[in-house]
Amino acid sequence: MSSVDRHLELDHFVRDERALVDACDSVVHATGIVAGLRAAESLQLLACRASGAFDTVDVLAELLDQRDDQLAAIAGVHALSGVPGSLATAVLDEALDDERWFVTEHAAWSFSARSPHRPAMDRLASMVTDGGFRGMVAQRTLAGWAHGDRNGVLLALGKSLEHADGAGRVALIETVGAIPGTAATALLETVAFDNDDADAQLAAIAALGWRPSDPDPLERLALDDTDVGEIALLALIDKTLSTRTTDVIRPSGRVGHRIAQVVIHAEFDERLIRSGAGDNGGLATLVGQLSTAFADRADVAQITTITRGSTGDAISDAFFGCDDKERLASVPFGGRGTVDRRSSWEHRLAVERGVRRVFLAGARPDVVHLRMADVGTLAAGRVARQLGIPVVFTAAPDPHVVLGQLDPAKVSRCNFGDHDELEHYWFRARMVERMTNQADQVVLLPRGDDGELRRAFGERAAGPLQRAIVIAEGVDPLPIRRARTVVSELDDQTGWPLPIEPLRRALQDLAPGRWGLPLVVSVGRLHPGKGMDRVAKAWAGDGTLRRTTNLVIIGGDHARPTADELDVLAELDEILGDADERRRNGVVLLGHQPNEAVAYVFAAAAIGLPRLVAPGGVYVGAAAKEEFGLAIVEALGAGLPVVAPAVGGPATYVAHGDTGVLADTRSVSALRTAIAQARRLVGRPGRVERAQDLVLNRLTIDAMAASLIDAYQSAQADVA
User: Fold this and answer.
1) Cβ neighbours of residue 191 closer than 8 Å, sequence gap 6 or more
2) Which residue in 174, 193, 365, 635 has its CB near the most CB atoms, within 10 A?
């Protein structure tokens, strides 16, 4: 090498090292969590290209060792993932044993970007045994490594199986199901006939369905009249579907789009009875109404909504439900009982199997619409790519907006990793960004601030965001109009309609002195992010408001509360008192209600009810952020002035100071002021008509469905 070449190489090395140090400094000095995410992304890209591996690893290892800056430590882990060579591998290997739990989790995830590393396999298998989100990322890494070293991965899983039991053993068997080869198949068949561990046996049977193996073991197991037989029958269906290489005839020869939409996280019901319970929020309501709107269109051949259900439902879907124009398809995972969104990550492989079954059991969809950063999107996105099905993704800046609004006194760089263990902010943010870049068509919700998405997603998403289609969400106006008509004609002498009975009974149970007051209404899941505690504090802390109105909070499964619902209910008890105190003070916790019943509550709040409710109520949406806010739209359509967050979608349709008030809903005092302002809008001339015209002309579910068809056509055209 000439002296000139050596000089150029040295100069290049120095510039790379300086750029790397500057990138680390950018991570350390970034203001805010989202800015830190963006800086960490830039650092990771730079680390992949940096020359001089020894110095690069040293610089990044120093970042990883930050003890008082957990965000920087995580950034160091991910930057190391792309640095070639054994030195970076050795540092990541040590990180798997780090005393900081969040570091081990991110190290397990980061290893997925590297070649198989046998010394780490035993510890990753142990993480799989631990379950949860951490087990899922370890499982993904091992499954990826199996394509390069299946024997090493299978050996590590086998060692862990010798000592595991219960849920840990099930997770290991699930992982074995993702390992190719006859050795993994033989192990699964052995466990499938082991009656001593029923849960592991069922997991092994389910995993056999998508493997190229002799169907005879499954056929024998299918004769069992217990759960074993049912799971084996479903696995046999999978085995049949796994050989399907060509598309099938469109349902009943219908012409038009075949659409699939995924809402795995919700306990979806076609009549929207469980709206507001558990994870069944506005999205579940929206998807249900969209399904009906699509089914009514001549240019749609089939609309399939994929959600969680039982094994029996999945079998029935595969045999009998494939030809329905409006199809509800079930994906079984997690056994019986509720599986909330946080707990669903570890069931990724089962969700993948179920989604693949739905896609192949009937007419393969022309397009798949995915939303949210959850296990359903993670699994369905992967299956769609494998099958070559175009994907439309609704790109909402979640969790980015949440991260931007976290109280720095509670969540900061210093303790970010501890909170990330629970909410998986980093993984979900990267997942949304990746889906935005990979989707064949991106859909955006309207935003008042055009720069919000770019600041959240970074420059790499500039292209997809530029060609995205902006589509407002919509509601079905018919139940709202019907409820207003019925409520306006009510009197004390005739029977009242069934949907309003829960509200009537609850109001009659209040102290008689509370009858005849206007209502302050809030609707939503009992989740910390929805701000029901802030509504309660704003109302209870204002003597005038408390004296002159009754408070109605709708949402939550009070009979079978989830962990989040229990937490929020406990907070509401602390703020509002026990049941007797609430009755005396005019508080109604109505629990989740069917969508039709909510429309009647809104109508009653706007128009009044004989003896029980005076007209002139208001609606309060107190979530820290709303991507769009369907309950707010419905309240506007019912004629209520609304309080809504100034961040996100509501700013594009709530006319501040006219149809409602936009506020910093994170602040109890700001919320209290906004409620008072909204009450002063009740008698504003023309307000009700302007709000209803907005909903009818711009924000209906039919208008949304028509716009989505354009997005689906665009996605298919791009793939073609």
Assistant:
1) 173, 197, 200, 201, 203, 204
2) 635
